[in-house]
Amino acid sequence: YQEQVMQIAQVMSGYSLGEADILRRAMGKKIKEEMDKQRGRFCDGAVERGIDAEKASYIFDLVTKFASYGFNKSHAAAYALVAYHTAYLKANFPVEFMAAIMTLDLGNTDKLAAFKQELQRMEVPLLLPNINKSDVAFVVEKVEEPYCDEEDPRFNLGVRYALGAIKGVGEKAMEAIVEERQANGPYKDIFDFAERVDPKLLNKRQIERLASAGAFDCLLDDRAQAYAAAEIVMRMAQMEAKERESDQVNLFGGDMAATVDRPSLPSVRSWTDTELLESEKSAVGFYISAHPLDTYDTILQRESIIPAKEVYTDPGLVGQTVRMAGAIAGYREGNTKRGSKFGRLTLSDRSDAFEIMAFEDDLDSIRARVEEGSPVVVTVQIRKRDDDDSIGLSCRGIESLEHVASQSSKGLFIEIESENAFTSVKAALDRKQGGKGRVTMRVPVAESKRFAEFRLSGKYKITPELKQAVAAEIGVMSVEEV
């Protein structure tokens, strides 16, 4: 400890406590002029007390080396106590602990993403933001489906995502929404919400952010429609506020007044799974409701993709070259000591986050995939790091998961409810021309109970993205991969 440096200086060289503290600070900050001055003072004091000058200089050098990593004992004791307290809380109240530390970093998306990964490792559900259940901060909430034994401190508990942690919504506005709900009950629908919020604290952009994050899922099950309704919500909120301010009473009065002049919600195409997740990520900073790889289950199995959790826990994989898949979470470049460039690519699959090291030969292809932003398949060599025996991953190739899927799937079978849907479906298909897959369509024959089946002449890139896009078109009854 640093206190021991001070004690050595006192006993060996006759330092006062004040002088010893100056020595401690000089060593900690590596101030050369002060250190040269202190060496003379230390050695002279030691010689006066019968210690050989060469030995005194040797001890000074030892103490100097130690001081570069020595720690203050009183600080160490305080840190140890805090570490014990937090370890106790995490072990005995794990869900409450995670909700508390996430609240401490309410505005730090990077840290919240790391905490989300920790919740996943702990198998604790992270529940979507909900306008009728979320608080401004992260809170503990009972979940419907138990995921552990009753004796487990996590039993029946999850963490509800904080409204205040959604990007760009503002804590003050979220406090007002929560206070109104607590005072007058849950919001019944999107119109009830509009009539009860203060338009002075809320704007269209904040409504869109809440919709993207899934906060209105409990009021409206189509996020695309909730997002598109932001302008209507704001207009209604302003009209209701004006009415309250003028103290006018609606002619019909009572509950009936709440349903008068409510406009129709905009009719829009539902978001595909990919669009929904990307919108969610833009509002929250990461994915909560699902993972981009969820729609690729069949392809991942067909292509023998290894999950990250298995890579990190199966010692038999060390030294092997395998294929992994993930959504890109971050990328940065640096230079080695020899001056050559390297890259660190951070990804995640449904089981864990993982990091891949890449060198100059692979950097151009990685940059292209990072700019594109879609999920990727990476070929990696699994190795053990020399310094700490942990698992390291080296890039041996990277390609778009969409491309892998387009080479893997054979075709689609699409059923539509009328020939009117054919044009929009064909337009969606034409955007993915040039693959290997064939498309068969089933269409009802006009004014009869019969159906016509026919195969389109072109070949298409059959991917989950295309499947979702076709399924989202109005008039499509089913889409199956064949």
Summarize the structure.
This protein has 482 residues and is an alpha+beta fold.
In words, what does this structure look like?
The chain is α+β, with helices and mostly antiparallel strands. It folds into four domains: 2-67, no CATH class; 95-290, no CATH class; 295-404, Nucleic acid-binding proteins (OB fold (Dihydrolipoamide Acetyltransferase, E2P), Beta Barrel), CATH 2.40.50; 409-481, no CATH class. The protein contains 19 helices and twelve strands. The protein has helices at residues 2-13, 17-29, 32-48, 53-67, 73-92, 94-104, 109-122, 171-184, 190-196, 204-213, 223-228, 230-245, 273-284, 297-302, 308-313, 360-372, 401-408, 422-430, 464-471; strands at residues 126-127, 139-142, 157-160, 321-335, 341-348, 353-359, 376-384, 391-400, 411-416, 433-444, 451-455, 476-481. The strands form three sheets. The protein has a five-stranded antiparallel beta sheet with strand order 6-5-4-7-8. A four-stranded mixed beta sheet has the order 11-10-9-12. Helix 6 (94-104) runs antiparallel to helix 7 (109-122). The longest helix is centred in the first third of the chain and has 20 residues, at 73-92. The chain is extended, with a radius of gyration of 31 Å. The termini are far apart. The model is unreliable at 254-260 (pLDDT under 50).
Name a few traits of the molecule.
single chain; 482 residues; alpha+beta; OB fold (Dihydrolipoamide Acetyltransferase, E2P); 4 domains; 5-stranded antiparallel beta sheet; 19 helices; extended
